[in-house]
Amino acid sequence: MKNKCVFLDRDGVLNSDEEYYTYRSEDVFLIEGVAEALQKLQKAGYLLIVITNQAGIAQKLYTANEVKTVNRLIEELSGVTLDDLYFSPHHPEHSSRSLRRKPDSLMIEKAMAKHDIDPAQSWMIGDRLSDVQAGRKAGVRTIFIGEKAKEGDLGDYQAKDLSEAAGIILS
């Protein structure tokens, strides 16, 4: 039997995104309700996989190790062990173009192959149009988090935060 999964963008979905790039431990703050939402989704049998663009690596603002450290800190703060982390270190103006970078779906596709994930039972949650586009390309349902999208495409569902998104998935 294939696994079901919730793919999660990181900044703006799991942790507050006050700074443009979150890479220092002291800047990591979980958004209210994130820990409980992750715990409910995991208890319901969903794999939890972070799918995040990290263009600051290409811009030499921080390193891949700092991205992994932030991920571990999110796990500690939420009390949830995430099943995997995929990140694109690319930026179109600072490195080569890559199909790993959202809105392309290669990170999600790699995760689906590695973890034997059924796209029909899976979701992508993000706060940007590129998250929705990547989810759609990979064939999963999408939830747009945040205020109404200025870019036009709001995903299959909209939610104010991860807590509300988890409610949609679990209903």
UniProtKB/TrEMBL annotation:
Cytoplasm recorded as keyword: yes
Domain of life, per UniProt, equals Bacteria
The residues that hold Mg(2+) are 9, 11, 127
Among Pfam families, the record links this protein to: Hydrolase_like
The UniProt entry, under Gene3D superfamilies, shows: HAD superfamily/HAD-like
What cofactor does this chain's UniProt record say it requires? Answer: Mg(2+); Zn(2+)
Q: Does the keyword Calcium apply?
A: no
The active site annotation covers 9 (nucleophile), 11 (nucleophile)
User: Which family is it part of?
Assistant: Belongs to the gmhB family.
Indicate what this protein is called per its UniProt record.
Answer: D,D-heptose 1,7-bisphosphate phosphatase
